[in-house]
Amino acid sequence: MATVDERARYRPNPSVLTALKSPRLLTREVLAGLVVGLALIPEAIAFSIIAGVDPKVGLFSAFVMAVSIAFVGGRPAMISAATGAVALVIAPVMREHGMDYFIATVILAGVFQVLLAVLGVAKLMRFIPRSVMVGFVNALAILVFMAQLPHLIDVPWLVYPLVAAGLLVMVLVPRLTKVVPAPLISIILVTAVVVVFALDVPTVGDEGELPRSLPELFIPNVPLTWETFTIIAPFSLGMALVGLLESLMTAKLVDEITDTHSRKTREAWGQGVANMLSGFLGGMGGCAMIGQTMINVKVSGARTRISTFCAGVFLLVLVVTLGDVVAIIPMAALVAVMIMVCVATFDWHSIRLSTLRRMPKSETIVMVATVVLVVLTQNLAIGVVAGVIVASVLFVRRVSHFATVTRSVTADAAHYTVDGELFFASSNDLTTQFEYADDPERVVIDMSRSHIWDASTVAALDAIETKYAQHGKSVELVGLNDASGLFHGRLSGGFPPA
């Protein structure tokens, strides 16, 4: 049960109730939701194409994910919808087995996410270093920008001045007013120019047909057998892991931007619930979206669940009732918004020469490795996991040199002082730092400035005692702290001689 301090730590600021009582805050949240709703439409259609499904599947998924996560998620103001990472993972199911197996895969992925949340997978976030986090953010900014390139290549030349105009509006408007989100003003002005002057440029309507009805209950027609499970489970587990990783990383990023805390475990099972609901309503599932979340939080200034809820509601209203209006919005307007998101998302401080000179080389290597792997594979899970592995290897390599052994000899004994943390890497060559043949018959090893962390260290100490015993000499370990003493006492003597 949460304590009073824990409740205060996770209390949203501002809360939904505070926003509802403040016309200024409520206006900001609603308008932010409208901007995100507009930005979600072409993205959802594009991700539907990646997954090999009808555009309405991605749009329904975006609606269901956004609305449901507004209630069950743990990170206020974060946007969840259909995503490219998830689409890539489950696309083979649609291609090889059809729609019913595809939806069953989404539902099972939601079940897996709830189970992973119960098992405490969110707590593993603490093991992701800051350098991996920076690499994750920079890689996502690059991927979001790369996703805009198809809308900037082999298009009418008028697209380029329209994108430039949209960017200029978003740079200048915040200097004049922040009451209305700059992206919304940019979209309206660019659309007005295209309509008034009847410019022939690509529009949202060119991306795919918009649905004309509400989502309906969809029960996948698949046999409830072990064979079905073996077909969809690998893809469901992959979707669950990728979705949780992207969602929890995005939640952590928003925590840092807003200087607030969020419930990562609740976010994990909330994502599972949202995916199950998405599947049962004919959606392709998804996870948190870094681009739309940055539009909502960093560009539009939203802070509550109201903006997330409104994003989903506006999306459905726009595509179902105002589909003809939405269809005329030029893609140039939305591309400009996404490019501004990339600029705001990228951690420019991380690549400044002053930062690179000051930062340890190992941190820079981890950041660059994460960026390169995410961009090359376009898979967040591979990039982040690889980044964590690289960071772990470099950390182990660095601390393995921290343990030192100093020797002094008196008339009756040899005294050794071990200084540093002892684990499998640092204790690996511990046995080579003693003068077995030249020491007196009594050897004292002072462990007061060290700590034993694993069985490898206990085995190394046993090997040292064995080597001295072979020379007819005795060893005395002194200064072990309580934890090290208990650990050593429990394992010592349990290893075969080397």
Number-wise, the strands total 6
Low-confidence stretches: none
What fraction, in percent, of the residue positions are helical?
A: 55-70%
Largest sheet: 4 strands, mixed
How would you explain this protein's 3D organization?
A 4-stranded mixed sheet has the order 3-4-5-6. The radius of gyration is 29 Å and the shape is elongated. The chain has 20 helices and 6 strands. It has 498 residues and is α/β, with parallel strands linked by helices. 62% of the residues lie in helices and 7% in strands.
Which SSEs are present, and which pair or pack?
Layout: H1 4-10, H2 16-21, H3 23-51, H4 55-72, E1 80-81, H5 84-97, H6 99-118, H7 130-148, H8 159-176, H9 182-196, H10 226-258, H11 264-280, E2 287-288, H12 290-299, H13 305-320, H14 323-327, H15 331-345, H16 353-358, H17 361-377, H18 380-399, E3 404-409, E4 414-422, E5 442-452, H19 455-470, E6 474-478, H20 482-491
Parallel strand pairs: 4-5, 5-6
Antiparallel strand pairs: 1-2, 3-4
Helix pairs in contact: 3-4, 3-5, 3-12, 3-13, 4-11, 4-13, 5-6, 5-10, 6-10, 6-11, 7-15, 7-17, 7-18, 8-9, 8-15, 9-15, 10-11, 10-12, 12-15, 17-18
